[in-house]
Amino acid sequence: MQEILTAIQECAIALSSALQTDNTNYLATTNSSGDSQLAIDVKADRLIEEKMLGLDSVKGVCSEEKQEAIYKEKGTFLVAYDPLDGSSLFDSDLSVGSIFGIYKESFETKNLVGASYIVYGPRLELVFASNVVEHYFYDGKSWILKPQIKLQQKGKINAPGGTQKNWSPTHKALVESFFAAGYRLRYSGGMVPDLHQILIKGGGIFSYPATSDAPNGKLRKLFEVYPFAFIYEKAGGEAISTNGRILDSACLNLHDTMECYFGSKDEIAQVRAALGYDEAKK
Ligand code: AHM
Ligand code: MG
Question: If you write DSSP's letter for every residue of 88-131 in order, what string do you get?
Answer without folding.
Answer: GGGGGT--EEEEEEEEESSSSGGGEEEEEEEEESSSEEEEEESS
